[in-house]
Design goal:
about 450 residues, Pectate Lyase C-like, signal, pectate lyase activity, calcium
Amino acid sequence: MFIHSSPVSDPELIVQQGQGTINASRSSLAASSCRRSGNPIDDCWRCNKNWDKNRQILADCAIGFGKNAEGGKKGKVYVVKDPSDDAVNPKKGTLRYGVIQDEPLWIIFAMDVVIKLKQELMINSFKTIDGRGANVHIAGGPCIVLQKVNNIIIHGIHIHDCKRGGNAYVRRTPTQYGWRSKSDGDGISIISSKHIWVDHCSLSRCTDGLIDAIRGSTAITISNNYMTDHNKVMLLGHNDNHKQDKNMQVTIAFNHFGEGLVQRMPRCRHGYFHVVNNDYTQWQMYAIGGSAGPTINSQGNRFLAPDNRSNKEVTKRENAAEKEWKKWNWTSEGDLFLNGARFVKSGSGASSPYAKAMSLSAQPASLVASMTKEAELAACAIGFGKNARGGNYGSIYADTTPDDDPKNPRPGTLRYEVIQDEPLWTNFAQNMVIKLENELMLNSFTTIGGILRPIFF
């Protein structure tokens, strides 16, 4: 039976532990040539050149309210070798076979893979899904469900184009399967679960939410994720009448809320939410919203408002008159507001009401770009090419046009960027097809990063 967990009894201890992770990572890296980003999670493991030989050390790098998520740290390594799926009788070597086992498992992938699930992926407790070293997509079908489980880590996978599942039998343990009603089509659905850490995933274009946490879920950290092209991004809290969510505590840290997002980054109900050091690249309606009196502590974020003057406000209160929502504790400290963005505070100005919404020490908002940049993906290389750094130490440039001129390339084109002498990490501002007029000659210390958009040559 799931036992509902109470709020953290000593939030100051959580902050101290988070700062301890930062200090420990800095100390261990002092003699290293690795360039640290200031992101305590990444600095904890990425500068270890042998991380792929001891993957479970990642579990020691968690921060925030989900910092105690063990995942499969104490278990064996299970290797996914088969992209097929059977919702009731999964084959050994498939992802579903691994996640339903009763014992702790650290799940990795033998190859790049796109997994189209037949039904929702019901993950059992004490599991890690670790996509590092492979290009792993869960897409085109129902996606991930964490229901009445604990100690889950999901790291380094792409979750997109998730569809509704259900009205079908689905296995959740080696000995149990049951009938599932119609699902919402979330990317990751967290239901009555605790000690959860979702880190370094990309999420986009799902039927309902990208990440939803409801029905008494708590002790959650959502960090270092890249979210794009979606309407209702993140829901934290089931509904206004669901009082179990009063104990919910969630850390939202170091995420990049990117292009094409509309609202709910996150939308909160009842509980305690620490929104810290995230990068908001515009929004179409609002960024942070809520109802039913949640406590929201916003620190060290960078908010870039849309050009539409009607949508400059970061915050949105719902289902309450002004005289009521003015009592809700929503605060902003050290946030950076760009292009007219503004945060409407409410409730107490004292620090004590926010103690249960404090999970780590915020870094200055001026460092958000370096802490959330995609360029840090370079440190995930393995094998004989593991020391390739590409443009990891350089600036980030965005290609804005598919045009090509081999002799006199224009700024904004791919050819212009890859011939420069300094290290550069090239991203793409839009999906594009590039028809090269001649061979593309790359200079040293260059990365072409097309991981987030379809790019064709």
